[in-house]
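for ur thesis appendix - Metallophosphoesterase. copy paste whatever u need, i formatted it the way the template wanted (i think)
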Amino acid sequence: MKALVVADEVEERLWTSAVLNHPADLVIGAGDLPYDYLEFLSSALDVPCVFVPGNHDPDLSGYTRHGGLSMMDGFPAEWPGPAGGVNADGRVVDIGGLRVAGLGGSVRYNEGPNQWTQRQQARRARRLVRRARLRRRRDGRDVDILLTHAPPRHCGDREDPPHRGFDCLHRTIELLRPKWLLHGHIHPHGEPVPDRVVGETTVRNVVGHRIMEFV
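the 3d part is after this line
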């Protein structure tokens, strides 16, 4: 399984036919990218797309799907997300042979969408863990990727309020034991960004794009 993993920074050369030079089986988005960019990547490569929203993305909460129709409060409504994309925020999804658990958004710093206090995100994380455990009891499969927008606290985050990581992600990693935690939100500005290891999980900042292979 080879994935094109993107977050936060649009790379103009990928928003052309040049993306075909990066063949992949899946597009993974870690937030703060135009949804039509994700849609283009997925369509051009003819592969599925899974993503979580970032703090600069539109609010996707409240939308449901029934028979291929997008609904909001029981009425048909145009979904603002990427066509065909799978929003993994707060969910455990199987896609492209991988099991992905998602927690989008950042620490709350204003009244914008997709922002959570530490306590709110901790509640969301506990629900996610329960869903992952239920799936594991059904089929014995563990989570391969914990897909987040913000990183764990003190694990590649920053000290300014908008870019602090989430404390609860450490406990989530401990309970889910994913092979990878992939996140965006922290722009490296040209500096090298080393992977970090928490328990048995490799934490990787994927701002820009990465080509990753999953066994």
